[in-house]
Structure formats: C-alpha cells, structure tokens
Amino acid sequence: MHRRLLVPGVLATGLLLALPASAADYTPGAPSIGDSYYPAAGNGGYDVSHYDLRLKYQPKTDLLEGTATILATTKQDLSRFNLDFALKVTDVRVNGEKARFKKTGQQELEITPAQGLPKDTPLTVVVRYADKPSTVKINDWTAWVRTPDGAVAAQEPESAAWWFPSNDHPLDKASYDVSVSVPDGTQAISNGTLQSTSSKAGWTRYSWRSPKPQASYLTTLAVGKFDITTGKTSSGLPIVNAYSKDLGENAGAARASIERTGEAAEFLEQYFGPYPFNALGGYVPNVKSGFALETQTRPFYSPKQFAKGSNVSVVVHELAHQWYGDSVSLGAWSDIWLNEGFASYAQWLWSEAQGEGTTQEIADYVYDSYPADDEFWTVKPGDPGPDKQFDGAVYDRGALTVQALRNEVGDKAFFEILKGWPTERAHGNARIPEFVAYAEKVSGKQLDELFDTWLFQPTRPEKSKAKAAGLSLRSGAPIEAPKGWKQIEAVHELHGHGGKCACGKH
User: Fold this and answer.
1) pLDDT at position 10, please?
2) 223 touches 285 (CB < 8 A)
3) What are the Cα distances from residue 489, in Å, to 70, 144, 496?
4) How would DSSP label each residue in 329-353?
5) pTM over 0.90
6) 339-357: per-residue pLDDT in tens?
7) CA distances to 58, 251, 335, 440, 493 from 434, in Å
8) Which residues of the chain have pLDDT under 50?
C-alpha cells in the first residue's frame, strides 16, 4: 500500500476546494441564449427537462389562468435566472420556496431564488399567472390569435411567451404535459397524445402529453369548437385531426388533404426513416392567416392553404419537418435551411411520386425561372438574416441545393444521407457545418464548394456550376412548369414571405 503524506497546507487547500461556493461565487444566468438573429431569445444558466402546464381559458373574455411547473438543472452556480414570458405573474417558487421576481424588458421574467443554486442542482420552478394574451404585445405584436370560438398559439420563431414561461429557444428542448380546462362544448387541442378528459361544473379539462424533446415554438394550443377525426397508420401510430366547425368553403379541401396525413407520413418514412414521435395529426382553426407550421406531432394549417382546393403537398411539407426541424432541431436560427430546404425537397419527392414532375425537372425549372439579376438569388439560404429567414428563396433555392447535393454524390450516398442524418441526430440539435461534415463522411467527397455556391453566395450560380450540379440548361424558350409546381408554389407563397414570422424581433 502506498501512503501519501499530506502536509497542512495541502490539506487546507483540499478542504477549501470541497466547500460550497460562497454567495459571491454565484452569478446570474445570461438573459439570452446567444442567438445572433434573436438576441432576446432563450436564457443561460440552466437546462429544462420538462414543462407541466395546467391552464384554464375562457374564450369569451380571453382570460388565461395558468400554473407552469418547470423541471430543470442548473449549469452554473446560479444567483438568479430568467424565463421568457410576457403575461402577468402573481407568484413564483423555486424548489418550494417563494422567490423574488420582476419583469424586465418586454419578455423577460427575472427570478431570484431565496438562496444561491449550486451547479447541477435540480430545479422545480412554479410560476402562477393570469392575463389576456391577445392584449399583451412584444414590439407591438402578439402571437396569440383569438378566433370566433377560442384562440390559437402557433407561430415561428416564437409563441410560447404569450401562454407559458419557458427557455424560448430550440437549443433547450423538453418534454411536455399540457392540461387545459375550457367551457363545456369547447375543446383544447395540443401536441402528442390525449391522456384524459374530465368534466366538472361546466368546464372540461383536456390533458395532452409529449414525451419526446420538443422546442417551445413547436408547442401549440388551440381552443375552439372542432370536428375531430381519429385513426391509425398501418404501424399503429395514433392519428388525431381537428377541424374548426366554421371553415366554410375550405372545409372539404382541408379534410381531403389532412385526412391523408397517415399516407404522407408513411411515404416520408421511405426516405427519412421511422417516424420519430408517438403521435400524428393536424389541425385547422378558423384563423385569417395563410401559413402552416410544423407544430410537433400535430401541424397547424391555416384555412387559406386550401382556398384553391386540396393540397397534400403542404401536409407533406409539415410532416417532413417532424424529422427535419422537430426531431433534429436547428442549433441557431441562421440554420433554417436544415428545416426548410429538406421539407421543401420532400414536396419535390411527393410530386415525383404522383407523376407531376420529377425532382430534377423541378430543380431545372426553379433555376430557369429566376434571371441572374432577380432578388431571389440575393437571399443566402445558409444564412438569410432574420428579415429573410422565411423568404421564398430559403424554400426553393434551399431545395435546389438538396438536388445539387444529390446529383453530386449520387443516389446511393444521397439517400443514405437523407435517412441517416435524422436517425443519427434524433431529438437533438444541429448546425449546417455539421450536416456538411456528415454528408462528406457518407459520400467520401469534398463538398465545401458545392454548399458555398448554393447556400452562401448572394448571386445566381454560374451556368458552368449549375451544369456541374446536374441541372439541364436551356436557351431560348423558358422551361415549362412541372404539373406539381402549382401546389408547391402555393405552399411557399403563403408559408414564407413574412407569413409565419411576425415576431417583431427583427
């Protein structure tokens, strides 16, 4: 046995290291997670694992009452921390003790616990609140939309601040229990599976559960009067779809599209691998907006998406996000191409399967449709900036980049990348350089120049590079639009172009 002699000085140093940090060592968590596009988004100092939201909503008055219980773990010696929240708060507790709190800025809830919290401490934060969300504005805007019979929370890049406190950035995903009490005859729709319903004294409570990691902006709530359909995929996955009872002339087209959700999900599994969640569906509330959104497991669709008839293409787009965007979430909002480029390409794959234009024909058409001096080419899908984050070029040029990758590496490697990426990075986050490295690893090819050309240059790729990327170039008469293009274009016209990003942060 070897014995080490400890001299008094060494012993004293060891004891000091073992002592807990003094009050002076505890520091505030950052009031931002550090995203360059949205500096106010998210917070530092802790990591959330679960949200339990117990809510009551009265559509007639727009009064939302809530108790949010947030489970988290500290990531530093923490003296105080922030949550992103805009509603009026009445009480906050941290690990059972009352905590001081105040609102700072337009959406920061600053919480000071009774005592400092050492690093790696489990946190239980309880926030009680009550307010009328539609009257609460951040930069003169609200994400909470009242409908004739209820309300909806569904927006990108943020909507949580108007109905629950959170660490509002995709980097901090968590599981959710959302339980909402509404007047009898009204329903509450959220993500995941419906665990239970119960009625008492004129109110009905709907309790939903999402057990897989979920970003705050992908968490949704719709209150209203809905027709609900249920079913299962061939593998037994439960499907719940909800349609507002007052969709008018759009009702039939909406159902004809969204009732094919199971078919569309099974189609995408061929390319992306097994569906990553335990529930599936969609909902259409009576709202005036035009966009759709990939709210996790249950996408949101505006009625206008079906104003020209049925459109399964938008269903394919939102379901593709369940792999590309929801399961594998972006690491920063500048990485939006990882979401929209692949969801748009899924529409191209669907078009080809329906005999309405191959992915190559659509790629040729997109490149041919925009002359070199068109503003379309000034948008860089790999870093479009917050003002252009949902511009049509992010979708169409983004998908064009995916086709260029396919042509460069060949179908075998391409489809291995398409399926392997969301499998390897399931339920996490990723950045564009990480995807490039993965594609290079799978294909064995150097791809920096290809991605720089198609994602990061604010100019139309030269014809020589387009030809090298496998595009068919024509002189003279323009290329005729593939048959499936109208549905793809309809989705993107309503989907982007300022449609779903009105957060006011940019």
Assistant:
1) 41
2) no
3) 41, 27, 11
4) EESSGGGTHHHHHHHHHHHHHHHHH
5) yes
6) 999 999 999 999 999 999 9
7) 46, 42, 11, 10, 30
8) 1-19, 497-506
